[in-house]
Amino acid sequence: MINRENDVILAVLKLSRAMRRCPPDPGKHPFPPAAGRLLECVAENNGVSSRELCEMLDIRPSSLSEMLARAESEGWITRTTDEEDRRIQRVALTEKGSTAVTQMREAREADYEKKTACFTEEEKAQFCTLINRLSDHMESLAADIPEFMRRPPRHGRPPFPPKDGIPGEMPCPGEPPFPPEGEFPGEPDFPHPGKPHLPPNTRMKC
Predict the structure, then answer these.
(1) Cβ atoms 104, 29 nearer than 8 A
(2) Residues spanned by the domain of 150
């Protein structure tokens, strides 16, 4: 019989539910979570190629093309053709994009401090140690699950709200529909066991 007072999984689910009910203030964030992830990756890897961004964000090229087009139209990024290999497209932040990323980081820091005010620094370290241990254990269990039972990556979620009558990307056939914006945190799922990985010596920060 499970002791409900020490039910780790129940506690995690309760925390997840509470986080969904307390999302970041959209008025303090310059863009949606998916767009923030894109610009964060570009900020940490200036001149990154579109192929590398696909792998870092774990999304399809068609989804990335839409995200890049919207980010470029907002003036956050520039796209240029690689001088040595014209098949490669390089992505970099503009001054406006850099300012937006700075605002996002400041808003994220303030949100973090507000939501973790109940912990001391020592308790934060202990909590992260335990959660990371549980996450690693769950990942090891997931590796033994048959491929057909694994949950697919969340490729179908529109990265930006519809603009100029252009809807976001629809879910893949057989993929469960996604809840409305704000129904779950903006952080990505853990990497899919079958997702491609960058070469061993490729240094990316994202």
Answers:
(1) yes
(2) 21-206
Tell which wins on pLDDT, 20 or 179: 20
State the pLDDT confidence band at 116, using cuts at 50, 70 and 90.
very high
- 3 falls within a domain: no
Task: Convert 93-157 into a string of H (helix), E (strand) and C (coil).
Answer: ECHHHHHHHHHHHHHHHHHHHHHCCCCCHHHHHHHHHHHHHHHHHHHHHHCCCCHHHCCCCCCCC
Do 189 and 153 form a contact (C-beta atoms < 8 A)?
yes
Asked whether residue 177 is domain-assigned, the answer is yes
148 exposure class (CB count in 10 Å sphere: 0-12, 13-18, 19+): exposed
**In terms of Cα–Cα distance, which of 73, 31, 27, 101 is closest to 166?**
73
Tokens in use for 31?
A: 């863009």
What are 60's two structure tokens?
A: 């399809």
Query: What's 87's domain CATH number?
Result: 1.10.10.10
